[in-house]
Amino acid sequence: MSTSPPLAADSGKMSGRAAGMLAVLCGAIFLEGIDAAMLNIALPSIRAELALSTTTLSAVVSAYVLAYAGLMLLGGRVADMYGKRKVFLTALTVFLLFSGLGGFATEGWMLLTARFVTGAAAAFMTPAGLALINGSFPEGAQRNRAVLVYAGTASAGFSLGLVIGGLLSAVGWRWVFFAPVIFSAVLLVAGTKLIVETRQEAAPRHRFDMAGALTLTGAMLSAAYALTRLEHAGDDLNRTIAAAGASALLWLAFILIERKSRAPLVRLGIFRSGALVQSNLAAMLFTGAFFGFQFIVSLYLQELLGWSSFQTSLALIVIGMDAILAPLLTPMLVERFGNRRVVLGGFAFAVAGYALFLGMGLDWTYAAMLPSTILLGLAFSLGYGPLTIIATDGIAEGEQGLASGLVNTSFQFGAALGLSAVSAVGTFVLGDGESPSERLEALRAALLVPVGATLVGMVIMGMGRGRCTDASCRLQAG
After folding, report:
1. Which domain holds residue 169?
2. Exposure string (b/e) for 273-287, b if CB count within 10 Å is 16 or more?
């Protein structure tokens, strides 16, 4: 394993190697973002060629979410114990191989396998990447800027993935899988040369907490499955209840195991950090609101206004402005006002954006919805990165992978919960209605979920100041 001291001093500029390493890590999180978004656009073409049932097609999407959300905490802790560089590069290799398998799929089971393993690889790669940044850049302005660039790239990947997926699907849906293979191969070659790991990063290995790992993975997988079942709970309520009950029991078993373990997989004391708990709850609500909104807008534009999937993706691309604003504007605002105030500003923009969209009508033009997309672009620019900083700030180097896994799990679970919540509310309000006006009212009712979730997140982040160590935090406290 390559080792070196931190890549940059507190007062120095980012070195060329540090910039190269950050570029590789940003490329990986961008890859994860576009990979998830591109598939959503390609689903109709995949169904047509492979003759997949609606259930199987839905499972293709759920398989990725299940593995990603279910294994994220385990991935972060494994990175702490066995080396973040090693885990990151190994996961990237697996991601490459199984994305290729998806491109060659001729049957539904091949696609399901590919998506599940790809999601599992992302679950190990993502927290390891963020932990590498936190371990390689000194706490303060440099780390804040690096994390903000990383978070902005992640968000931009999802926004641009919708457009890229539309273009690739026009050529052939298999390119939605082959393009990430090419991109990840380039990142793998560059990563082996540029990614280094500090001597202080690797946590003592002791013996691996296998009981904790098994119960944690089972608890997360069953919880993720229950979330993805919420919108279809009426079809098989017993299965949804059974999944939720199994998750609760496994969580209880996991807590008991960790309390008694000499080398716990997850040190429960980490949750004594008020800033960590607050930021994780807020992250869950923030992404849940956005993914729910995106689902609503997709149905509104395509089913009620008759737009194509490509036109829909172009309409939402404005939100991707955070790829530019996050690394340029947000660091200055954080330095001036502190992470928490910047996050609250992001939540305020999000509430305004969702609330404005409540006026959607059957005769709306793009100009009418543009203010909402601009406000949401600003919201992600101000909210996503600083939330990540707050969640990992002040955490010991040996637990950075765990903290990174926690916040990324919150983002993923928030997405699943938001999608299920808006779908359930919309279905309940619609009932047996089929007319355009009735469907529009159902979508408006569902849109209250993102509005409410964002308001609750705003209250949570406004309840305390959390831990402040850098100059911006001290300025905020003053």
Report:
1. 7-198
2. bebbbbbbbbbbbbb
